[in-house]
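Supplementary material to the annual report.
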Amino acid sequence: MKRLILSSLLAMSLSMSPALAVNPDEVLGDPALEQRARDISIDLRCVVCRGENIDESNAPIARDLRLLVRERLVEGDSNDEVVDFVVERYGEYVLMKPNTSGANVILWAAGPVLLIVALIAGGLYLRRRSQAKETAVALSSDEEARLQELLKD
Amino acid sequence: MITELGHFALILALGVAVVQMIVPMIGAHKGWRGWMEMAVPAATIQFLLVLGSFLALTYAFVTSDFSVQLVTLNSHTAKPMLYKVSGVWGNHEGSMLLWVLIVALFGAMAAWFGGNLPQRLKARVLAVQSSISVAFLAFVLFTSNPFIRIEQPPFDGRDLNPLLQDVGLAFHPPFLYLGYVGLSMAFSFAVAALIEGRIDAAWGRWVRPWTLAAWIFLTIGIALGSWWAYYELGWGGFWFWDPVENASFMPWLFAAALLHSAIVVEKRESLKSWTILLAILAFGFSLIGTFIVRSGVITSVHAFASDPERGVFILLILALFTGGALTLFAARANTMEARGVFGFVSRESALVTNNILLAVSSFVVFVGTIWPLIGEIFDRKISVGPPFFEAAFTPFMVVLALLLPIGSMLPWKRAKLGRVVKKLVPAFVLAVAVGSLVWAIQADKTALGPIGMFLGTWLVAGAFTDLAGRTGRGTIGNRLSRATRLPRSDWGKLCAHAGFGITIMGISGLMAWSIEDIRVAQVGEPFQVSNYEVTLMGVGQEQGPNYMSTKAEIRVVRNGTSTTTLYPEKRVYPVQAMPTTEAAIANGFWRDIYVVIGDPQAGGAWAVRTFIKPFANWIWAGSIIMALGGLISLTDRRFRVAAGAAKTPMQGVPAE
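Predicted assembly:
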């Protein structure tokens, strides 16, 4: 635990221990199939790492997942079928891009909804300012006193 | 002995900070001059005490005093001197001490350079700033004391995480903290103004330089971190939407918004209460960032729950300061009467749009960052990774970039859209031309590349059109000489906006056209990656100061002519038993060649990863230009005059 806290600044570094992620022996012979495998890999999370996808990670489990993805692709699965297969086994935690089921709707809608609210509020403010009359600026008594003082010199 | 003195100085600093928090505030309320004036020496003394404490800890690291627990855990005698020093803040306790040092530094700077501030406002600002010091000094002393000794010191330390033993990362935290904490000044000014119940154009002028400075530091800090990730982590990524990164990105977005809304306060006396709110939120997000990074809460709720002391303390600080300030805001905001009147199409409305886009995009990042946490509360394990942020955040930046050149040229009060748009036609045509050219020549038909190049060109050309428009009419010579006499803030604006464009080009170019090649390379057998012929010449072993290295020699020949030799390394740091990859990069204007050496394969071959990364340097060049723009703007005459006004007697004010 101590180490965990100490390393929170270093969290990025811990999560991203470097090395070759995809090893040459994993690469599929068919470039089109390999490209599909890479595209799928980017959206799948390495379950033991922090914030790394399986394409970047050099953890053994990530390698297993990469091989699994390629295996399914060779078997003839579509991209979605491969992802569904992995999610079924490892849970939705592996999805880098959360789906829109249940409460996740809030996550996806937060930006657009907030933008609309902000635009309406901003629009109302702008309308008020454009219809307001320029207020005459009166000096406060402090400022009046200071002005008199300055004028004396 | 020196360690104990450092500890003692820190305790004294807390005492001074408590006094500085209370006395000037009462003085300002009652109008007692002497009580208000004590804030200035107190701020200086507080800063010197914390500085002394920080130097004491640095001394312990430099001399490798392993009787200090923190040094044992994070240092090693064989470590190069630079990393002994950077090891001071390469850990929780030391970095929090650095944080406190910077809070005190900013307070002291406000005391030193705030000669022309009204006495009451100054006393209140310094008191509020000191209350932040109190909170964090208490946090350091009670939960994260860096000066704890060990009874039986070991012969050597456990070394710093090798990934952190790097020049880019050595200076990354100090810059970030200067940025985070710099926003505390804007916060202190906002709270002081709320207590005062008054805010005017002068307030905007005082707040802006502090916000600008904080934003510059954040820009540099974030750029350094991203540059480090690019060359150190071994696959050339530059931004991961990691919670720790987002923690620094949210305050940056808010600082950018605040920077712009403070202009409206300064020039037009509008948007006052919104600016105050932004100042509170910007610092609030700095605190949230600190909480995220320091508590470990994002790693897992359970990790947080098992050792909650520090996290809860920061959460309390966060709740106290943002909650308190927001309550004060709710009570006082309606006393901020706006004065300026402006039309629907005006610079003011453009800046409102800027603020909406920056603030909402920052909230999107925030929601994405904490969503896994919320999910965990409902027993659902969710990941929110780069694909989400790319989909949810990027549109805001695209719209911002589209509107920026137009908005930045609109006149104040009431503008005619047609007139501005007409001036920007050449810039738009140029941008479309660049976009289509890129579309035509790119190998894979991606949309990202051309759109990014279009937006970037549009921003850069728009920024120059803006500046050119301010030089009036006449011959080119006349206009050029007028351009040199323009206020520096105009030049700063040019740089900042153009830098943003260059960064957009870099990001989209890199993401759209990166080429990757993974293979088993035989020594001496060339292979082709894009236009480059790559040959692994040999691999050898080397001994570094505190690591062992496997170093490869790789020759890259372009079109059979220009040759570059690269030396990628794989290092093992025995003390931490941790391998690191040192990618070798041939930096170029249009592209980087990036090679990484992997594991040995059967038959004397090696795994080699080669990347061609187009436009990579543009990302950081753009960031540096943005920061430079801020710096130029910071030296603008009106800030210098404002700062120097106290020393020179008033000469009479020129009519505007």
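Chain A has two domains: 12-94, 104-152.
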